Structure formats: structure tokens, C-alpha cells
Amino acid sequence: MIKEICKSDLKSRLLKKDKPVILYGMGNGADMIIEELEKMNIEFSDVFASDDFVRGQFFHGKKVLTLSQIEEKYEDFLILMTFAVHDDKTIDFVKNLSLKHEVYSPTVPVVSGKGLFTLDFYNEHEKEFEKAFSLLSDEKSRETFINILSFKLSGKLSFLFNSYSEKSEVYEKLLKLNESESIVDLGAYDGDTIKEFLAFTKEKYETITAFEPDEKNFRKLLKNTENLENITCLNIGAWDKKETLFFEKKAGRNSKQSSAGTFPVNFDSVDNVISHKVSFLKMDIEGAEKNALEGAKETIRRYKPKLYVCAYHRNEDLYELILKINELSPDYKIYLRQHKYIPAWECNIYACVED
Fold first, then answer.
1. Is the pTM of this model over 0.90?
2. What Cα–Cα distance (Å) separates residue 254 from each residue in 49, 114, 311?
3. Residue 18 lies in a domain
4. Coil/strand/helix, residue 59
5. Domain ends where: 127, 161, 195?
6. Total domains in the fold of the chain
7. Which of 7, 58, 108, 335 could form a disulfide with 350 if both were Cys (CB 3.0 to 4.6 A apart)?
């Protein structure tokens, strides 16, 4: 049973309206958070950025300030982080900032439009969260689950900082990557995770099949993997069936299937495309993970590949994906790990069948 979860959510804290709300950062993330604030009839007072990024620009009609200017202007205030970060320097800065000021990182899902992760949402799905929690296979996974739930609810960074673990532990001790893996990478981006995998297998493997639906990313993927043998790169997205869907184009790796999309993209299922043995299956596909798991169900049931499934794109992912993996094969040992990132991006489910 889930215990000691933080039951005070960020929405309730913001609705107190006892301090000026200051945004840290600009861009798409800030736009999404401002939209959530407007739903609560809350107006942010100012916005600041790192000193290197303050060049007299304006954001939503407010001049972008430095932190020192904010501290000089306000006696006390509440900070909302509006961007994602994973480099050590910025994370250390945020840690120090949270010691001086009241700092929160809101969880607004990358997809699905469900808004802030709130206590109402948790209570509505408490049985599913409890079931998913009961399926986790080690104490570290259960601790991570509680910390990530508490972070998503409260926005308090301490819960997130307490959950960090290293990828090396996953590859070496949980998944035990070896030199004869047949890898399927769904959402291969520019080949960055393929490079990461091969660093742990001494550049040795049997085959690699990479799905990447975004044309620009796909060109980078081809270039970055051109020296690899036995690799097949496919300019398609992963889904539960063969279908043309519409994509919302964004910079970098964040292009995603969306009802608001205007760019047609071909999607297909792993079961339709892959006919050979798969030993390692990774999914980082901007909220399509549940559909892709369904589309790989025969592959999963037949070969029991090691699984690496991102669980942070949708509010439901933290329970739905664990339950889906268990539904497809109860033989899996299921683990949850959070790697260094603000907000809880790189919260991943790992699963394997032990020999």
C-alpha cells in the first residue's frame, strides 16, 4: 500500500494567493503554465531568466528581469520553474535557489491536455496507482514511485532530488545489457540513445531497428548511424496498427502526434514491422507508449524483450504503463527509476524476465 505520499498539491498552494508568483524561464513550458494559472484566475507578477539570457526582451507583456532584480523588487515571492533541465550546473543552481526561496516545478503533461497533476486526479485514480505500486519489484522502485507521485502533486523539488539514480545501474544491474542484443528503438531521435546503449555493450550487438517519425530528426539519425552495421532506420512512428496520423511539429525531439497536428505521418506497430527476435525494446514516443505496447504485444509475449518505457509524457503514464506491461506478460519484473532531470522527465519503467 502506498504510504507517506504528499497530500498537499501545488494547485492548493497557488490558490492561497499569499505571495507574488514569479516565473523562472520563458518558452513553450511557460506558455503551458500560464494557461494553467489563468484557469485558476492567478496572474503571474514577473518573469526572470538566467543572467546570460536577459537582454531586454519581453515575455507575455512583461520585461524579463534577472533574479537579483526580482529579489530587489519583492520582499517575498513564489517561483515556478517553467523549463526542463538536466545539466549539473543548472540543477545545482536550482537546488541553491530552493534553499533561499519557495520554488516549485509544476507537472504539466507533455501531451493529453489534462492540466496540472492534482490531488483530485490522484484520488480519482487511487486504485490504479495502488495496483501499479504493488507490481513494482524492488524497494528502490517503490521509493521512487512515492517520491515522484509526491513531486508531481506538490511541485516540491526535494522529492525529485531524492529520487535520482544513474542509468549505469539500470543497464548493468537491472537489464544487464550484453553484446548480442537485438535492439528496437522506438523514438530514436538522432541516435542518441543508440549511442548510449552501445557504450554499455562495447559497441557490439546483433541488430538494431530504429523508428523515428520526424523527417528532420530522421535525417540526423541516418547521418549519426551511417557507420553502424546491421541497422535498419524507418521513418515511421510506433502505434498499435498501421495508420496515417497527424503530427504537431516542434523543435528538437518534442514533435508528437496530436489532434491539432497538420503534418501527415505514417505509423505502424512493432508486430507488423518486426519479424525477427527482439531482446531489447525501448519506447520514448511522446505519449504513444501505451498504444505502442499494445502494438508490440505479440513480440513481447513471444520474446520477452527487456523493456525501457518512458513514463512521463501523460499524467496517466505512471500507472497505466505499469499495468499494461503486467497485462501483456505477468512474468516481467518491473522497476521504476528517475534519472537526473527537472521536472520528472526521464522517469522510466524498466522490465525484464529473469533467467
1. yes
2. 22, 18, 15
3. yes
4. strand
5. 161
6. 2
7. 335
